[in-house]
Amino acid sequence: MRVHLSADMEGVTGLVDAEDVQPGGRDYERGRLMMAEDVNAAVRGAVAAGATDVVVNDAHGPMRNLLPEALHPAARLIRGEAKQMGMLEGLTPGHDAMILVGYHARAGAPGVLSHSFMGHEIEDIWLDGRPVGEIGLAQATAAALGVPVVALTGDDGACAEMREWDERVATVAVKHAHDRFAAALLPPAEARRAIEEAVAEALCAPLPAPTPPPDPSTLTVRWQSASVAVTLLGIPGVTSVDSRTVRARGPLTDLYRLFGVWMRVAASLTDQAPYC
């Protein structure tokens, strides 16, 4: 069994603040070790279920958060940027299942460190007219490749968002949001035991057949800055919805790669720090 694991950081056990998840933050070094422990719990669950190939994609921020020496030896790590498929780098139709670790709710939704990809710079995203964040876009893109998402870990807001996209996905709430920067936490040992058990159970059960998204799909993004939207109109196939909103149509896997280009353009035009 081949398993792909996408590891974000905001939804990791114990982490609640930008200082926990941003390089240079006073608690970032601790945060990256907490991230590794959640990932390792998921890897242990996958191995217990019979996975023979587990690839972990570091999907947070600069994508250099996981220390290779801290990772479970059964996993192979994809680290660094830029990646054509970003948070889903390394995912192929040859994978049997996908696991999302440390994920968070979309921009504007209740949840710890909720945002969509770029903090303030992205106000809203819609996939085929439906509000979407990192969770829904990962689930739909994986489905387009024929790979089911079988488990997700994060706060209770992320778990609820995942169930809206596919109620069959096993979810583990490692914390319960009190506000965007506050949460009631599960004890780390309890959280990691729950992650390991949920992943093993999900992979031992018959794997669900994913429902592919429409082809073509439509991806729409509303930016904080009109400058970003105007600049993106120079890319073939990108059209304007209004002064701050752009749209493109095509196969979802192509749109996911295109969206990565949009974010690199936006990053070159803005310098706003996320989360604050």
Automatic annotation (TrEMBL):
SUPFAM superfamilies: Dipeptide transport protein (SSF63992). Pfam families: Peptidase_M55. This is M55 family metallopeptidase.
